[in-house]
Amino acid sequence: MELGRTRKAGRDGSPRESFFISELRQLDGLRSSSRYRILETLISLGPSTVREIAEHQGLIPESVYYHIKTLIRLGLVVDLGKRPAKRRPESVFQAISSTIRIDPEKRTPRFRRALASFYDAVLRSAGRGLRRALEDDRAERAGPQRNCLTFQVEARLSPQRLQEWNRRVDELCSFMFEDDDEGEVIHMTISAHPLERE
Question: Are the beta carbons of 98 and 8 closer than 8 angstroms?
Answer without folding.
Answer: yes
